[in-house]
């Protein structure tokens, strides 16, 4: 895939190395996002187990 | 009296002599009430701007010679800016002349001049705009170089005005460093879900901003990026969708590298439009 990168006001095609760096950064972002979603799911599972709503949990932690 | 061109055989009158001499002790003045373009006859005289509105003094080539000087002065509230027309004008100081300000314009050749503003102690601004980078179309990353220097220890980066091709989180990388980024914070949905986030020894600081098809948002404060000590940061963003979220993050980069540049990368897709502004906090 061709990526366009910008350095100050210059926009150009990314080199192979730069493209790999973009893909690595985006892969890490996806991984972090998935970890966050997994945490949300696990949190919701605990709330369900306790029979609490999100508001009640927030009030409890607040 | 403007400079005269005496020719062979011409009689120099006492009046002319007095006028020429007077210019040395009581400089010839021409007052302008609107923007003005210098003419050859201004050589050696004092041009006084007197306008409540902003004005310019335009400097063109082939009117003056190497060594020629003239004095520029502003006596009114409208700021007058010395402006390069077809000649160049360089200066180590500001080209804007405030009320009661002045300076000397000195020509090193017919088309090259230097403006020497009279010493004025400028009041340092607490926050100075260092750069404003307009984001291009469908770019996968934006690097801002020359952002950090020894002039400031602490910086603020504001990202706003553009959009992403899809929704995701912005990440920030300093220089070419792709390891050692630590942070902790939270991403809280407007619906009331509070989620703590933390990453250790990551390749960048993620979640310093957000992007979607209707928003690009991020505020990042960087501490000591150009000093030989770990860079610290605080960030937040505000997603503008009613089912979205906002985030606050902070952390540090585990090295003592001195950085001058940073790169912003969308979590997915590309960015289009908007501006990345970098501000420096005055040290003292």
Keywords:
heterodimer, A: 62 residues, alpha+beta, two-stranded antiparallel sheet, 2 helices, elongated, B: 284 residues, mainly beta, Jelly Rolls, 2 domains, twelve-stranded antiparallel β-sheet, six-stranded mixed β-sheet, 1 helix, 4% helix
Characterization of this structure:
The complex is a heterodimer of chains A (62) and B (284). Chain A is built from two helices and two strands, in the order E-E-H-H. Chain A has 62 residues and is an alpha+beta fold. In chain A, strands 1-2 form a two-stranded antiparallel ribbon. In chain A, a hairpin with a 2-residue loop joins strand 1 (4-7) and strand 2. The radius of gyration of chain A is 20 Å and the shape is elongated. The mean pLDDT of chain A is 85. By secondary structure, chain B is mainly β. Chain B has two domains: 14-117, Jelly Rolls (Sandwich), CATH 2.60.120; 127-281, Jelly Rolls (Sandwich), CATH 2.60.120. Chain B contains one helix and 24 strands. Chain B has one helix at residues 14-25, and strands at 29-32, 36-37, 46-49, 55-59, 69-74, 80-84, 88-90, 96-97, 102-109, 112-117, 127-134, 141-144, 154-160, 163-164, 168-174, 181-189, 194-202, 205-212, 215-223, 232-238, 245-253, 262-266, 271-272, 275-281. In chain B, the strands form four sheets. In chain B, strands 11, 12, 13, 15, 16, 17, 18, 19, 20, 21, 22 and 24 form a twelve-stranded antiparallel beta sheet that branches. The longest helix of chain B has 12 residues, at 14-25. The relative contact order of chain B is 0.16. The mean pLDDT of chain B is 91. At the A-B interface, strand 1, helix 1 and helix 2 of A face strand 11, strand 12, strand 15 and strand 17 of B.
Question: What is the helix tally of chain A?
Answer: 2
Number of strands of chain B: 24
Biggest sheet architecture of chain A: 2 strands, antiparallel
Overall geometry of chain B: elongated
Quote the average pLDDT of chain A: 85
Question: How many whole angstroms does the radius of gyration of chain B measure?
Answer: 28 Å
Q: Please write the string of helix (H) and strand (E) elements of chain B.
A: HEEEEEEEEEEEEEEEEEEEEEEEE
What is the oligomeric state here? heterodimer
The radius of gyration over CA of chain A amounts to 20 Å
Number of individual domains of chain B = 2
Q: Pairing-aware structural class of the strands and helices of chain B?
A: mainly beta
Mean pLDDT of chain B: 91
Shape of chain A: elongated
Q: Beta-sheet strand percentage of chain A?
A: 5-15%
In whole angstroms, how far apart are the ends of chain A? Answer: 46 Å
Q: Between the first and last Cα atoms of chain B, what is the distance in angstroms?
A: 47 Å
């Amino acid at each position: 895939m061709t990526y366009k990168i910008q350095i100050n006001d210059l926009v150009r095609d990314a080199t192979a190395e730069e493209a790999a760096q973009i893909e690595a950064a985006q892969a890490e972002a996806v991984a972090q996002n998935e970890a966050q979603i997994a945490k949300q799911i696990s949190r919701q599972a605990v709330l369900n187990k306790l029979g609490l709503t999100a508001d009640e949990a927030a009030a409890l932690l607040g | 009296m403007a400079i005269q061109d005496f020719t062979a055989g011409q009689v120099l009158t006492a009046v002319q002599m007095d006028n020429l001499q007077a210019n040395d002790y009581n400089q010839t003045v021409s007052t302008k009430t609107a923007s003005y373009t210098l003419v050859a006859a201004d050589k050696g005289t004092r041009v006084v701007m007197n306008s409540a509105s902003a004005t310019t003094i335009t400097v063109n080539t082939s009117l003056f010679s190497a060594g020629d000087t003239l004095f520029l002065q502003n006596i009114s509230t409208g700021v007058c800016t010395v402006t390069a027309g077809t000649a160049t004008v360089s200066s180590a100081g500001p080209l804007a002349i405030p009320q009661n300000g002045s300076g000397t314009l000195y020509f090193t050749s017919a088309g090259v001049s230097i403006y020497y503003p009279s010493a004025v102690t400028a009041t340092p601004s607490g926050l100075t705009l260092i750069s404003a980078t307009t984001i291009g179309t469908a770019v996968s990353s934006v690097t801002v170089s020359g952002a950090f220097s020894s002039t400031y220890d602490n910086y603020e980066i504001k990202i706003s005005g553009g959009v992403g091709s899809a929704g995701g989180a912005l990440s920030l990388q300093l220089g070419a460093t792709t390891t050692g980024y630590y942070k902790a914070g939270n991403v809280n949905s407007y619906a009331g879900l509070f989620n703590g986030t933390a990453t250790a020894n990551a390749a960048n600081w993620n979640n310093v901003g957000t992007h979607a098809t209707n928003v690009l948002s991020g505020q990042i404060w960087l501490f000591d990026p150009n000093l030989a000590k770990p860079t610290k940061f605080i960030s937040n963003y505000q997603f503008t969708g009613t089912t979205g979220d906002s985030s606050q993050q902070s952390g540090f980069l585990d090295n003592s590298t001195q950085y001058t540049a940073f790169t912003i990368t969308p979590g997915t897709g590309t960015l289009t439009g908007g501006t990345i502004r970098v501000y420096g906090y005055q040290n003292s």
